[in-house]
Amino acid sequence: MTTLVDRTMSRLRRLVRRAGDDGLGISVDQVTASLDDLDSVRALISACLGTRGGTPALQGRLAQFAHLHGRLDDVGRGRLYRLLTDEFGTDDAAVTARIETWTAAADRDERAAAARQLHASLEPSWQLLASRLAGLPDGVKFVVDLREDVRRLGGFRDLDAGLRSLLAGWFDIGFIDLEELRWSGTPAAILERLIAYEAVHEIDSWDDLRNRLGPNRRLFAFFHPRMPDEPLIFVEVALVSGMASDLDEILEQTAPDRDPDRADTAVFYSISNCQPGLAGVSFGDALIKRVVARLRAELPQLSMFVTLSPIPGFRSWLTDRHGEFPDDIALDPDTAEVLESVLADPRRVVDHPELEEPLTRLAARYLTSRRPDERPIDSVARFHLSNGARIERLNWMANPRSAGLSRAFGMMVNYRYEPRYIEANQAAYDRGEIVRSPAIVDV
């Protein structure tokens, strides 16, 4: 994992040199990558927690910790995270004492004071360390990357959950800025990160990116003030006439630019989360609502807001059924045989247009199927339906590229966001409904 330590090493080294060993007898550069010596690291963490805030000594010790983290291999990081969890977690004895104080409180004021003390005692010590690390240069990004690393290694559930809770507060939507990114005016370093972070439809060149930032395109991203060069999530939008049903019409680099003032539809064709360390901290709901509001203000003639979305789990769902199709989607033996061959090699679907009708019906059944918790089994459906969209239309051969064929035989789906119905659709989703258009109901 590339961490902030790799990108800001010179600043951290200056802080480390300024601190020296600070009387602790710690030399970070002598710590082995596998962290064989826990005693010195334990002392460093204790010093980071015990030093008064806002002092150069604390900054130097925190820089030592960040520098050390960047030098560790996976074995060393696992030992570090275990040390934080086991020895710098919640003090059980302190919690018990605070509970007894709260229970014995004589009046309302004493109980309120005891409750505040109890709340403070429930916070693990490592949480203060994480909060202080955020004060380093690029420190917020360091903590985000730290959680990504904790999740990657696995086995540190309490540390992961605690970091998620901490980051959810730091990344409250009230602190997040929406920015439109453009080919001209956006720093090249940020544009380069868009290429790296695109998770739905790969950006294969700078020309491809330039096309996606063309006159009839828009790209919006969320940023945090403490991470100004790092997008959190971004959405790519095409301004077209009518509901899009073909991905190539949107991504084709040689297609002529259309006049955005004549467009009546905004198509959200890619949404990418950029920071794995913020998994579970949701931005998608707010992003779509704020982008819709921005587009309506800029282009008031827009009357339709839809996605052109993948159906990532469709093929695997169908394969797992082993030919056992719903009773109302009965296939004749010849069609069933062709479908079985296409399941094994989805590239062959382009040669079998007779599969359009049965696969469309099966895709509709997949999108409206539920997990035991009554939520849709498809992850993209859960995202858009929970954000207030409805399933609008299925599109045959919308993405005949390799990934589209492999995941869903080239099929894609439009989810529709109607501003006046978003809240009602969200409420329906919360009640367990899967909101869909008559076109999907009738399939």
Describe the protein's architecture and organization.
- Strand 4 (265-273), helix 14 and strand 5 (304-307) form a beta-alpha-beta unit.
- Helix content is 50%, strand content 10%.
- Helix 6 packs antiparallel against helix 7 (108-122), helix 8 packs across helix 9 and helix 9 runs antiparallel to helix 10 (157-170).
- The protein has 443 residues and is α+β, with helices and mostly antiparallel strands.
- Mean pLDDT is 90; it is low at 1-5.
- The protein is globular.
- It has helices at 4-7, 9-19, 38-50, 56-71, 74-87, 92-104, 108-122, 125-133, 139-153, 157-170, 188-197, 206-212, 247-251, 284-298, 314-320, 333-344, 356-367, 379-386, 402-408, 422-430, 438-441, and strands at 177-180, 217-223, 233-240, 265-273, 304-307, 390-395, 412-417.
- It has a seven-stranded mixed β-sheet.
- 34% of the residues are buried.
- The two termini are 45 Å apart.
- The protein has 21 helices and seven strands.
What proportion of the residues form beta strands (DSSP E)?
5-15%
Write the element-wise H/E pattern from the N-terminal end onward. HHHHHHHHHHEHHEEHEHEHHHHEHEHH
What does the main sheet amount to? 7 strands, mixed
> Counting H and I runs of at least 4 residues, what is the number of helices?
21
* Low-pLDDT residue spans: 1-5
Taking the alpha carbons of the first and last residues, their distance comes to 45 Å
Radius of gyration: 26 Å
Measured as a percent range, the helix fraction is 40-55%
Spatial shape:
globular
Neighbour order of strands in the largest sheet: 1-2-3-4-5-7-6
Structural class: alpha+beta
Tally of strands: 7
Q: Mean pLDDT, as a whole number? A: 90
